[in-house]
Amino acid sequence: MNQLSRADAENQNYPHGGSFMVYDEDGNLTATELVGDMDEDGDLDTVDNTAIYCAADPQCDFGTLYPGWDVLRGDCDNDGDVDMDDYNLFNAFQDLLYEAWTYTWDAENRLIQVAKPGTPTSGDQKFTFAYDYMGRRVRKQTLQYGRTGWSVVADTKVVWAGWLLLLEQDGTDSDAVLRKYTWGLDVAGQNGQLNSLASAGGIGGLLAVYDTNGTTTGQNPTEDDKTYVYLYDANGNVGQLVDWVDGYEGATGSQWHADRMVATYEYTPYGTLRASAGDYADENPFRFSTKQWDDETGLGYWGYRYYSPTLGRWISRDAMWHSAGDNLYSYGPNSPQSGVDPDGRDWIITYWVDHGPYHGRTPPSPPEGVDWPRPSGSVSGGVSQPKGCCGMDVTRRLRRAIDGIETAFYDLVWHDKAKVGKICDSMISPNGWDIGILSGGGLKLGADVFSSQGCGTGTCQGSVQVDGVCYRAGEVNYILWGVVNRLCYTTHDYWTETPGLDGPVVRGTGQPAPRGTWSLDRALGWIGLHRFVAGLNPFSEPPASVGGGSTRCRKAWTRAGWNNDWTIPRSEGCNLEECETVCCDEEYPFEMRVTLGNHNAWWPTWPNEAILEWP
User: What global pTM score does this model have?
Assistant: First the structure.
């Protein structure tokens, strides 16, 4: 997994120390330990100084004086032994770049606590995090140790819209509003992707912050409120914040005055804050890559992973185990200037084409006479030539369809539990769910319609666009499979007679089906059978064609539906790089109908009609 075991801040004149890294079996960073911290208490002090001197002195019996201590923790110059060079280097350490931390993770591999190692002393702090059902961080608490133990000194709660943060509240002050955020098009939307607020994870899309300045009560609670707007560099890193309201010497709105600059930031290529200035520089949490930063821990929160700019790596492994290649911790392709990572799971190379950043390993052919930049290390091979035109853009209709079927499903959970049971029971059938235009006869009809508009031609027949990327339509259809299995799984206790147990019976056994019947692992396991029933070889990888697709990509779209996330890692190989998307960017009028429960081809005793459909 290419786990980093040690990092050193090398500087000949001013050495800044080093850190050891410890991981759990899931690949999550559980501790950073200081080089030279011989007693492992999280600090460098005279005890460590004395121990390193003993280890360097041949006349001192280190093993007897310090039983159980690891002598190599004093190897400050990382040459494999401890001698007087290490002792001298230890005493030259100043302004340590690294800190000692312990990291605690929950069963979903989400970071829930960061604390100092060892026994807490007065004034020590630790930080805890809570998440919602989507894995979004909804609460951050700061606790401080005192005479009576740990007490909460700061409590920030947040409200999300998708993966965009809208509101921060003060949990220590009756959830009073701290800040409100306004979002626009992110770097994908700014470069042509239709209405994209989050295709690039909101990077570069944060427009403004409204700060209550900590005063929400009193006679004039809004009198000291502030509104600041964000300015960015080309990769969506926050560079400046400007006061939009206050009239410095009469300057308001778009009029400029130097005193209106309330925050400025400069970064290293991997996001370490090199310099900052301004009254609001510390208060503003959105900085490098338009992500939230926790100054207390030095980590950035991307949504699915936390990032350490000091290490230039994620502190947990790639959730897909392979989207970053052999290195499961690297930030993109180790070329941060060449792209962005929307949420900690996949890298978008910043090839700015007429219709947005190219989502993939190899960009499409540039216009004649134009030579796009090619960042070193992130793209292999030459520039591919497009072979056909991708099918219609179904993004907007597909999102509406999925939202519609979810709303209808939840309504049934409360008003017709028997029908919900039938829907969930039908999930074992390849005919029990469908997005008509993306699968089977509907796809054939849709492909013909699209082709008549010049879309989905040649080898790209049977393809559709989702968020500016071309995929096989039959694979995209499996997003519904993931969504409905998730709905059945998460609402199981509400529509079954006995919470946690009773539900549709397992066919052939008469036994109740437990919640796990609709788990993600079970949903993925059914996919091979779906293909077999459909007359396809479940072990082959058919080409892009009507109804075609691979088991791997169907599983990727199933995970997307289950996780309520539409980002398919480029390394899955599911995007059709040979199919141009910019040649068919207008939606032809068509209806996207979703049906659940129509499976008389599988169980003839059931009626040949959908149990639930939208619209």
Answer: 0.59
